[in-house]
Design goal:
Its cofactor is Mg(2+). Belongs to the FPP/GGPP synthase family. One of its GO terms (biological process) is ubiquinone biosynthetic process. GO terms for molecular function: dimethylallyltranstransferase activity; metal ion binding. Keywords: Isoprene biosynthesis, Magnesium, Metal-binding, Transferase. The protein is about 65% helix and about 0% strand. The longest helix has about 30 residues. The chain starts with 11 loop residues before the first helix and ends with a helix. The protein is built from 17 helices and 2 strands. It is globular, with a radius of gyration of 22 Å. Strand 1 and strand 2 form a beta hairpin. By secondary structure, the chain is mostly helical. It binds farnesyl diphosphate (FPP) (2 copies) and magnesium ion (2 copies). One farnesyl diphosphate binds next to helix 4, helix 6, helix 7 and helix 9.
Length: about 400
C-alpha cells in the first residue's frame, strides 16, 4: 500500500475486517446469558450472518488508527503543548517498517511482542481499550434496534425476522435491557469516568430522540430545526460521542477529541438525511425494508419539510400525520414535484463535507497507516451520499 494509491484501491471495510471479526467473537461471549430464552434473544443479532453493516465499529477502529501516532499537538494560543509520544514508541521517527501491516493487525495479545518497532505494551493496551469501546457502541446500537422494532411493530431486521416478531415484545425489550447491562459493565471496566459520562449521555439522547419523534406536536413535526435536533439525538449522538471516546482512550488532547466528535456528528447527520431520501427514492427490494416507510408512520423528514416550503398544502398533511386516505400519495407527489429531494441531498452533502473538513483539521501526520485510515474515513463520508441501502 502506498500513500499515493488512489481511493479506488482502498476499501475502508477491508482495512479493519480482521479486527472486526475479533470484536464479533468477543461480543458473542459478552452477550451470553444464563437463562436459555434470554441467551437466545440476546445473541440473536450477534450470530454469524446477522451482524449488519457494522458501520459504527468500522468508523471507530479507523478513527483509532487515524489518531494512533499523531505528532505532539500544539494548541494555538494555549499553554497546551501536547505530550511526547516517542516514549510510547509511536512517534513518526519510529514508524512501522511495514506500514501495510499495522501493529494491531497481527493477533494482538498484549504479551506477543511484534518485531514491529511501533508496537509496545502501552500502545497495544490502548488499542484494546478502543476495541472494547467499539464493542460497547455496537451493543448499544443493537439494544436500541431491539427496542425500536418493538416501538415500530417491525417484523424484519437485517434481512431476518425482527426479535419482537420472532420471540415477542417482552423478550425483545428484556434482551435490549440485558445488552445495555452488559455494555454498561464493559464500559465501567474501561475505568474512564469521562468515557462513561459520554456513553451514558448517548443513552439519554437515544431515548430523547425516539420520544421527540413519537410525541412531536404539529409545530414540532413541521420544523426543520426540530427534525435536525431529533436526528442528532437518534442517530448522530452515538457515533459522535463514541468517536470522541475513541480519542480520549487514545489519550488525545481535547481539541483532537473535539474534531473526532465533529467528524462523527456530521457523518451521522449526513447518514440519516440520506436515509430519509432513500425512503423516497429507494425500492423496498434494495433497502430491505418497506419504502415510503416514514410517511406511513406519520413522520415528516427532510424531503417533506423542504417540499412543504414550496407546496404549503403539505403542512396540513404533516399535522395530521398523513393519516387521511390519499395523504401518502399526495405527499409523495409534492415531494417529487418540488426540489425537496434535491435540497435534502444538498443538506447531506454539506454534512459530509463538514465531516471531511474535521478530519483535515487533525494534527498533521506522515505516518502511513494514519494517512490511510484518515483517507478511509473521508471515503466513508463520501460513500454515504451514494449508497443505495
Ligand atoms: C432506528 O430508527 C432507531 C434508532 C436510531 C434509535 C432507537 C432508540 C430507542 C428505541 C430508544 C431506546 C434506546 C436504547 C439505548 C435501548 P428508525 O426506526 O428510524 O430506523 P429503522 O428503519 O432502522 O427501523
Ligand atoms: C439502523 O442502523 C438505522 C438507523 C439508526 C438510521 C440510519 C442510520 C444509518 C443508516 C447508519 C448511521 C451510521 C453511522 C456510523 C453514521 P444501521 O443501518 O447501521 O443498521 P445495521 O447495524 O443493521 O446495519
Ligand atoms: Mg424502526
Ligand atoms: Mg423507529
Amino acid at each position: 500500500a502506498s500513500m499515493v494509491e488512489d481511493d479506488a484501491s482502498l476499501d475502508p471495510f477491508a482495512l479493519v475486517a480482521d479486527e472486526l471479526d475479533l470484536l464479533a467473537n468477543r461480543m458473542r461471549s459478552m452477550v451470553r446469558a444464563e437463562v436459555p430464552k434470554l441467551a437466545t434473544a440476546a445473541e440473536y443479532f450477534f450470530r454469524l450472518g446477522a451482524e449488519g453493516k457494522r458501520f459504527r465499529p468500522t468508523v471507530l477502529l479507523l478513527m483509532a488508527s487515524s489518531l494512533s501516532s499523531v505528532e505532539p499537538f500544539a494548541c494555538p494560543g494555549t499553554s497546551c503543548t501536547g505530550r511526547d509520544l516517542s516514549a510510547l514508541g509511536t512517534s513518526s521517527s519510529s514508524m512501522p517498517s511495514s506500514p501495510s501491516s499495522p501493529p494491531w493487525s497481527s493477533s494482538s495479545s498484549l504479551s506477543s511482542l511484534s518485531s514491529d518497532s511501533s508496537s509496545s505494551p502501552i500502545a497495544d493496551e490502548r488499542r484494546s481499550r478502543q476495541q472494547r469501546l467499539a464493542e460497547i457502541t455496537e451493543m448499544i446500537h443493537v439494544a436500541s434496534l431491539l427496542h425500536d422494532d418493538v416501538l415500530d411493530h417491525a417484523s424484519t431486521r437485517r434481512g431476518v425476522g425482527s426479535l419482537n416478531y420472532v420471540m415477542g415484545n417482552k423478550l425483545a425489550v428484556l434482551a435490549g435491557d440485558f445488552l445495555l447491562a452488559r455494555a454498561s459493565s464493559a464500559l465501567a471496566s474501561l475505568r474512564n469516568v469521562e468515557v462513561i459520562e459520554l456513553l451514558s449521555q448517548v443513552l439519554e439522547h437515544l431515548v430523547t430522540g425516539e420520544t421527540m419523534q413519537m410525541t412531536a406536536d404539529s409545530r414540532e413535526c413541521s420544523s426543520m430545526d426540530n427534525y435536525m435536533k431529533k436526528t442528532f439525538f437518534k442517530t448522530a449522538s452515538l457515533i459522535a460521542n463514541s468517536c470522541k471516546a475513541i480519542a480520549i482512550l487514545g489519550e488525545q488532547p481535547a481539541p483532537v477529541a473535539a474534531l473526532a466528535y465533529e467528524y462523527g456528528r456530521h457523518l451521522g447527520l449526513a447518514f440519516q438525511v440520506v436515509d430519509d431520501v432513500l425512503d423516497f427514492t429507494g425500492s423496498s427490494m434494495t433497502l430491505g425494508k418497506p419504502a415510503l416507510n416514514d410517511l406511513s408512520q406519520g413522520i415528516a423528514t427532510a424531503p417533506v419539510l423542504f417540499a412543504a416550503e414550496e407546496f404549503t398544502g403539505m403542512y396540513d398533511l404533516i399535522w395530521r400525520k398523513f393519516k387521511r386516505e390519499g395523504d401518502v400519495e399526495q405527499a409523495l407527489k409534492w415531494v417529487q414535484q418540488s426540489n425537496g429531494i434535491e435540497r435534502a441531498k444538498q443538506l447531506a452533502l454539506q454534512h459530509s463535507l463538514a465531516a471531511i473538513a474535521a478530519l483535515e483539521q487533525l494534527p498533521q501526520s506522515d505516518v502511513e497507516h494514519v494517512l490511510i485510515s484518515r483517507r478511509a474515513l473521508s471515503m466513508l463520508a463520501r460513500h454515504v451520499l451514494t449508497r443505495s441501502k
